[in-house]
UniProtKB/TrEMBL annotation:
It comes from the Bacteria. It holds the Pfam family DUF2798. This is DUF2798 domain-containing protein. Keywords: Membrane, Transmembrane, Transmembrane helix. The keyword Iron-sulfur does not apply. The keyword Transmembrane applies. The chain crosses the membrane at residues 12-30, 42-60, 80-101, 121-148. It comes from Ornithinibacillus hominis. InterPro entries: DUF2798.
Amino acid sequence: MPTTKKESLQFGVMMCFGMVLLMTVYNYYLNGMIGKMTIMEGLSDFLIGFVIALILDMLIVGPNAKKIALKITANTKKKIYTVLAISICMVIGMAFFMSIYGLVTTYIHNGFTSSSVVKDYVVIFSSNLIMALPLQIIIMGPFVRFIFSRYIKSTKHSELRGV
């Protein structure tokens, strides 16, 4: 897929945008926030989450997920196994960190509502992982790879050929 830093950034922006958008709506639904917050509050929460996710993707989770996935799939020649391994490692890493973000924002908005931060984190992490893994593997991953290969990669190849 991405072969240059620019392409990696473009791919990461598209993937983060889609995943953060859908996961934000999912979490608003889970917390009963749809209809209770203004559009501006929703957009600002989305933008903050998007920036944090993009930074995590580019600097921490992405590089480490790729290293782990490439080690796991080193003995396979099937690219689909590598793609799935990277996707799974990315989802686990992003769910881990973004659940911390979700926990912090929940405490900021609602205060401490239970006696166990660890329990709250495990609940948030598991509910995010349950949604994010199939969302990434079945919907967003294939969709973003299609858009990327169709419009970003094809544009680059057209420019190289002088078309």
